[in-house]
Design brief:
This protein is mainly beta. The chain has three domains: 4-169 and 612-627, Collagenase (Catalytic Domain); 211-267, no CATH class; 275-595, 6 Propeller (Neuraminidase), CATH 2.120.10.10. It binds calcium ion (4 copies) and zinc ion (ZN). Residues 158, 162, 168 line the site of zinc ion. One calcium ion is lined by residues 21, 23, 25, 30, 44-46, 48-50.
């Protein structure tokens, strides 16, 4: 008796909740019908997953416009490679297509249309999609049974993926991965291996590959043809076979295959991301970062304490004169502030540029009459201002660069656009006739080639703001241009409307001759309009962008009205820009790890198994609990 009672109870509970195929619909509902579910009409079965989807259309989405979309969605789920108890494969989609919404609801967002759009009797039994008029793509999910999506099958299966519990990254990796081939991954949402029809939920084929960008091996235990997709959008990696069953991938794009312990940003399909981020003080123009070894110096144009950061101030000029502030940053925190230029001594009318050499910060900036050169000595956690000199120059901006032949100050003349070189210890000032730029220039010493690289901004006939590197060699008669390279090739698109910044990276990962990184604000017609930043990385593969890979920095909201700044720092890259909007508007955003090289795991994830074993059931259970269908 005592033994018997619990058994009976258990059996009753089992019958109440059994869901053999784990599609979230109880066996009894699928067999005998339940609410609006009619097994004869809908063809649902207890031993094969069924997925009811209510497609509520916006007014204007006709049957004719929606039919191809729904047919493709049915095929998509039917084709999923997973074996069911009844011997079939895939998920059986049952579309429920009520009348389209009224035109009076046209201006309501998808979230507020759940009440109107998701029929009460289907809640907990079906998933819901509000189908928008557009077909271009774009969607959003706010509930396990509701999303808004354009009338495009790619987007709808992506948003349904979110409803079923899928994320943009592999569920156990948590960062984007080029071999997470899912349509949930933005890299492959609309195409895979150059085919719009080949997009899919991942089967976890590459789950065995677990890699860190900080320590990559350029080898994979898969035939080269399985990795062919990496040679297409958005990555264009070079892959070559290593026998029948393995291949080598040039992750760091340096032209050498099969290397070990490689460092490279390999998941930059969407952007190069920021890590170790902080928001710092207000600035009145573009920042400049200088590496002090362990620490950083942040140099910004600022306003005197009695002036307000008016929204129209985007840089200092002769009307809005200001100060130059130098701050020491340790682990993302400001530890000291030194005001170099004050209203009493040579107020600044532009941006500062500096280098760190022999324990001293050599800093230059334009004032009303010329260029101010100042030396600051580092003493523990602060800078102490030292010698200050100036020379007469036309209005413009300056760039300080360290070379084996001494420190040079490059002056860009705002009127004539000509570039003048002045040695830090001013012996001589020379115009380099071949150099001419629409914007202030960037400069760096290339130790592999023994040349000074100067980035000019040049208006091509049809494309304004293109960037070109001029290599200069030092000889008896001073600096002479030896050769020139267009950033992204002469026919490329990379362009800016403000000062670029250039780094030279001579590490092994950049190949035998090293490589440049050029950072810039994207070009806008009005120079002070906000835009996102870009990095143009020089690579060994000349077939891609004429040897350049251009990526967005951060994300599509990382707007600035000013140029960004970047510097090689602590084995990574520090990057800063002045925020264009939001709470931090006009403050400096700093990423101390902006190389995009991450030490979290890149991997793959078996989404198909997840959906069949968990996703279908869990998503409906959550709604069933909400409406009281199950406990
Ligand atoms: Ca079921
Ligand atoms: Ca079923
Ligand atoms: Ca390589
Ligand atoms: Ca990365
Ligand atoms: Zn998404």
């Amino acid at each position: 008796m005592n033994l018997f009672v619990p058994l009976v109870l258990m059996t009753t509970r089992w019958q109440e909740t059994a869901d053999l195929d784990r599609d979230g619909l109880l066996d009894s509902w699928e067999r005998d019908g339940f609410g609006p579910i009619d097994p004869k009409l809908h063809g649902c079965k207890p031993n094969r997953p069924d997925l009811f989807i209510v497609f509520k259309r916006r007014s204007g989405v006709t049957d004719e416009k929606f039919k191809p979309t729904v047919d493709r969605i049915i095929k998509f789920y039917a084709d999923l490679p997973y074996m069911n108890a009844d011997g079939s494969t895939g998920i059986h989609v049952i579309p429920i297509i009520p009348d389209a919404l009224d035109a009076k609801d046209d201006d309501k967002g998808y979230q507020s249309l759940y009440e109107t759009g998701m029929p009460k009797e289907w809640r907990g039994l079906a998933h819901g999609v509000l189908v928008e008029v557009g077909t271009g793509g774009g969607g959003q999910t706010n509930r396990p049974d509701w999303c808004g999506s354009s009338n495009r099958w790619h987007t709808i299966v992506h948003e349904l993926g979110h409803q079923l519990g899928l994320d943009h990254e592999p569920k156990d990796g948590r960062i984007g991965s080029p071999f997470f081939t899912s349509l949930m991954n933005y890299d492959y949402s609309y195409q895979f291996n150059d085919s719009g029809e080949a997009v899919h939920y991942s089967t976890g084929k590459f789950v065995g590959m677990r890699m860190q960008e900080s320590d990559l091996w350029e080898w994979a235990p898969f035939p080269a043809k399985d990795m062919e997709f990496l040679t297409k959008r958005p990555y264009y990696f070079k892959v070559r076979p290593d026998g029948e069953d393995a291949c080598e991938i040039d992750w760091n794009r340096n032209g050498i295959f099969g290397e070990r312990h490689v460092r490279a940003d390999v998941n930059d399909g969407y952007s190069t991301d920021f890590r170790a981020n902080s928001t710092l003080d207000l600035a009145a123009g573009a920042p400049c970062l200088v590496s002090l070894g362990e620490d950083l110096a942040l140099i910004t144009p600022t306003l005197p304490a009695d002036k307000k950061y008016d929204k129209n101030i985007w840089r200092l000029d002769s009307e809005t004169q200001g100060e130059i502030t130098v701050q020491i940053i340790k682990a993302g925190k400001i530890t000291s502030t030194e005001v170099v230029a004050t209203s009493a001594i040579f107020p600044a009318v532009g941006e500062a540029s500096a280098i760190f050499r022999d324990g001293k910060l050599l800093l230059a900036y334009p004032d009303e009459a010329g260029v101010v050169l100042t030396e600051l000595k580092r003493e523990d956690d602060k800078f102490v201002s030292g010698k200050m000199r100036r020379y007469i120059a036309q209005p413009g901006e300056v760039t300080v660069v360290n070379t084996p032949n001494g420190v040079e100050v490059l002056h860009w003349n705002r009127e004539s656009k000509a570039i003048t070189f002045t040695e830090w210890e001013p012996k001589r000032t020379r115009v380099i006739p071949a150099l001419h730029s629409e914007q202030p220039v960037a400069a760096v010493w290339n130790e592999k080639l023994g040349v000074l690289a100067v980035v000019e901004v040049i208006d091509q006939e049809k494309k304004p703001g293109r960037m070109r590197i001029s290599h200069l060699k030092y000889g008896a008669s001073g600096w002479k241009v030896s050769d020139q390279i267009w950033v992204e090739g002469e026919k490329g698109d990379a362009a800016t409307s403000s000062r670029p910044v250039i780094l030279f990276d001579g590490s092994r990962d950049r190949g035998p001759s090293g490589g440049y990184n050029i950072y810039c604000k994207g070009r806008t017609d009005k120079p002070d309009a906000q835009a996102v930043g870009f990095v143009c990385r020089q690579i060994e593969d000349p077939s891609l962008g004429d040897g350049w890979r251009v990526r967005m920095m951060g994300n599509e909201w990382a707007f600035s009205m000013n140029s960004p700044t970047a510097v090689l720092h602590n084995g990574d890259i520090a990057y800063a820009y002045r925020l264009a909007f939001g709470d931090g508007k006009q403050k400096i955003f700093l990423s101390q790890k902006a190389s995009g090289i991450d030490d979290r795991w890149l991997t793959d994830f078996d989404e198909v198994a997840f959906v069949f074993q968990q996703g279908l059931q869990d998503s409906l259970r959550r709604v069933q609990r909400e409406v009281g269908l199950v406990k």
